[in-house]
Amino acid sequence: MKHAQAKSNMGLVVGASAAASAFEWYDFYIFGTLAPVISAKFFAGLTPTAAYIAALALFGAGFVFRPLGALIFGRVGDQLGRKSAFLITVMMMGGATFAIGLLPTYGQIGVAASVLVILARIVQGTALGGVYGGAAISVAEHAPAPVRGYLGSFVQMSAPIGLLVALSVVLALRTGLGAVAFDAWGWRLCFLASAGLLAISVFMRLKMTESPLFSALEGTGEGPARAVYRETFGDAGNLRLIAVAFFSMMCAQGAVFYTAYFYVQVFLEKSLGLDPRLSGALLMGVVLLTAPLFVLAGHLSDRIGRKPVMLAGMLLALVAYFPAFHAMQTAANPGLAAAQATAPIVVVADPADCVTAFDPVGKAQFHSSCNLAKAFLVGAGVSYGQRAAPTGTPAQIEVGSVVVGSPGTADFRLRARAALTAAGYPDKAVPDAAALFGLMLVFGVSAALLYGPLSTAAVELFPTRIRYTAMSVPYHVGVGWVGGLLPFSAFAIVTATGNLFAGLWYPFVFTAISFVSMLVFMPETRGRSLDF
Q1: Which of 279, 270, 312 is closest to 439 using CA atoms?
Q2: Which of 16, 47, 115, 176 could serve as a FRET partner for 241 with CA atoms 20 to 30 Å apart?
């Protein structure tokens, strides 16, 4: 009877934790996908300066507030208990997501709508900082040691499942309602649908018991940590463990996961001109096929160790980054690769006229002739060389032997597109979907191998007294800053260099940092007792 109750409680722990993690990624993808709709509904009447400030606020809510939430709710979890912190954060996150679906628009209440959606995002971002740590720690501290990696991997698997649900909801509503109705009011249903995940997670969480390790800690004379931040960041040993976690795991987690499930799609659509419906369908197929591999990776980590499995995922990504993306260009748009070989493109511009196009909030304007020329070429999905022109000379592009100047004029894009077409550059992609799917699958497998055992390894790295805080902070810096900045940083690198594949150096470098750090500094944690 006691054994059956333990198994039942373990099921509740895993189910509630997995639902919360799925919620996290559902929220991320829904908001990212619907960003143009949100901007039109809540910031349409703002001046350019006010709109830029609003965009900064939304950006900050998504990235800055997650580590801040990790600090706030990590302390709650380490002092008051895992169950309390996790329940508070899930309800905050779910309530804020649901509320966005009900908010009046700018056209209805003016600037107050902008303020309300920013506040909702701040609540979301702050709450998200405490969700993942609570989910991962709850499972690991309840799980039997021999299957800790396997059970923890269900939390990890729920990340791509959250993406899949988000993709499915958006696709179904856009298809079923039509573009006009979806943009008018159907987008709200995407946020309101999150109530289902919230209800499941809260219902399960209320039925759970507190972590046995935290309960045991409360029963000791010393009790939970009284000064969480001092014990976490003021102790040299604990600070070293945080650094090890960040550099050995979280850098690669942000780079590999976001490449596999976000940047690949951006690259196919924005750089290679693939139909978004096809890229979305391919991504859904990759998620469906790789989701079970997260659990397999967790199971393997119980047998051979956390490090070998995670290192294999990182190594696969490192080996695949450049050749796989080059192969994607050939598979997605073979005519493009052929044209670039016969009619290379050169941007001729004054170097002082070229500004680095790093714009994480999507509001900066780059109006110089050099940036306009580069923006057109990057948007057309073509690589280009660069040659310096005399100071003060307006930029121009050379397509083979044809010169196209005056990027700031109204007909520049028409003239430039005509030159590309004459040189054999295709107007649209003619993809080999099967080949693309296989190449995308490589990154899905690498993400599963790395991410599957990651939460368990991170939990096993830290002592019980500070585990919630110490684990959550490096995770959300890795997710929010390394992973979240990947698309913007990669685009800026591509624009600066003219090479469609140069942006891959961003995930490559962070993955390489983690590979070397894990190899040298990360201890094997399989079999380690959590009661320390």
Answers
A1: 279
A2: 16
| Cβ–Cβ < 8 Å for 191, 30 | yes
pTM of the model: 0.86
**Quick one: tokens of 481?**
């800053």
The DSSP-derived string for 70-90 is: HHHHHHHHHHT-HHHHHHHHH
DSSP 480: I
Exposed e or buried b per residue across 373-384, where buried means at least 16 C-beta atoms within 10 angstroms of its C-beta: bbbbbbebbbbb
Report the alpha-carbon distance of residue 441 to residue 316 in Å, rounded.
11
The owner of tokens 């700031």 is 408
88 touches 130 (CB < 8 A): yes
What lies within 8 Å, CB to CB, of 278 at 6+ separation is: 431, 433
Element (H, E) at 347: strand 345-349
Calpha distance 214→464 (Å, rounded): 7
pLDDT at 520 over 50: yes
How many other C-beta atoms lie within 10 A of the C-beta of residue 81? 20
Residue 497 burial (CB count, 10 A) = 17
Choose among 352, 344, 353: nearest CA to 373. Answer: 353
- Domains (ranges, CATH) in the chain? 1-224 (1.20.1250.20), 225-339+432-526 (1.20.1250.20), 344-422 (3.40.30.10)
Report whether pLDDT(5) > 50: no
Token readout for 151 is 């059970």
The whole-number pLDDT of residue 56 equals 61
Question: Does the structure show a pLDDT above 80 at 362?
Answer: no
Closest CA to 78 of 253, 230, 205: 230
Q: Are 343 and 469 in contact (CB under 8 A)?
A: no
Contacts of 334 (CB under 8 A, 6+ apart): 430, 432
451 and 156 Cβ atoms separated by less than 8 Å: yes
3-state DSSP helix/strand/coil % of the chain, to nearest 5: 75, 5, 20
